[in-house]
Amino acid sequence: MYGMRAQDNAPAMHFRCERLCRVNGELYFTTRELTLEGPFENREAAKREIQAYIERMQVLCTSR
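^ thats the sequence. predicted structure below, dont judge the formating
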């Protein structure tokens, strides 16, 4: 999928992938910025935090 983020100079190929992973049995999610967020008790908690993270990043990008 081709797409362009606000900070990108040109369209680039971005791949959707499963962002949830387990590390030593604990649930985390990864970000485009290559951070590992968590741990979370379950998938539902992780998905809620993914949405909150996206909303925070959108606010940061629009305030620049």
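Helices lie at 43-62.
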